[in-house]
Please model this.
Amino acid sequence: PDGTSSTPLLTVSQYACKRRTTTVNNNKILTDALEVLAESYEFKEIPGRCLAFRRASSVLKSLPWAVRCLRDTEGLPCLGEHSKAVMEEILQSGHSFEVEKTLSDEKYQTLKLFTSVFGVGPKTAEKWYRGGLRSFSDVLAAPGIHLNRMQQSGFLHYGDISRAVSKAEARALGNLIDEAVRAVTPDAVLALTGGFRRYRGKEFGHDVDFIVTTREPGKEEKLLTGIIERLKQQVSTLFGLLLYCEYNASTFDMVKLPSHQFEAMDHFAKCFLIVRLEGGRVEGGLHGAEGDGRGWRAVRVDLVSPPMDRYAFALLGWTGSRQFERDLRRFARAERRMLLDNHTLYDKTKKEFLAATTEKDIFAHLGLEYIEPWQRNA
Ligand code: 8DG
Ligand code: MN
Ligand code: MN
Model:
């Protein structure tokens, strides 16, 4: 940093939780390419390579400037030889041979298509592919294929739930959920989490995530089942509001230590829903199903209901992004000898759990500068 080199003046951390990443991505061409490769290695079940490309992409997303040539990236962390070679090719010729090859690969395309269905993960997609299936009609016509309820709903509402959810739609859903929550108990706490908590502009999400709890200890599970009942009873024209509902009861156990695994699922009561959202509710009716004049659309909604004293951990864990969460946990473990998950923070040196009522408390325990939700789009 003598002012003559193109090295960025501020050092960029290898940890996403020490970077501020808005939704303004100055390097989208590069990050899109790296994420194709990340996804293809995810399908190939090579997690190390997948993570390497995701980390590289995440670093580029945090830059307030566009990378023009490889020299610009000197001193940046997480850019391995492979990522750099891909970037170099794109910077020089506009595209990468490996990325183009991946995008036109039949297996990649098929797994991408299958995993775009709600309820279909990489394992199922791989199984279908190995069974010779290549399209939705192949899957639906194949004898001996059993679709679970989630997958059936995924196919039934495919068009709607693969269409992005707008801010206006998220707001309309917020009102709908809020109404149900108030009807069950007036002292409930409801907050938007997930992507819509991180987006400030006119970004779109794939679903709408809410966290809901109550100040009355032990009542949070009843609250969630109450909300579900309420939504089921609420009839919109001829149909109930809930097109699909999977409820997972809490398996939360306070004595368990945070797990060492990334992406570890949490144990709070939660539900995965598909909700019928009326077009008329939203100003301008911008989400009405185009062309078919139905006036409503299906939207994916997730609700999680932690006990109040776990609220800050759950909110931090559900706000994402996934890369931000991964690095928070990695940072806690590697730099602080602490274990963090959606339930708790444990200090291995002091051998004690650290209490928190706000996200700021958790950042403070970790000795991290507070990062606002809209700066967590790592
Ligand atoms: P998007 O929906 O706008 O595309 O982005 P997102 O909101 O960041 O993605 P998401 O898939 O809705 O996940 C939101 C956060 O929730 C993410 O950081 C991961 C976290 N999460 C958990 N546990 C669970 C879980 O059991 N299921 C799901 N679907 N997400 C979970 O911490
Ligand atoms: Mn989401
Ligand atoms: Mn979600």
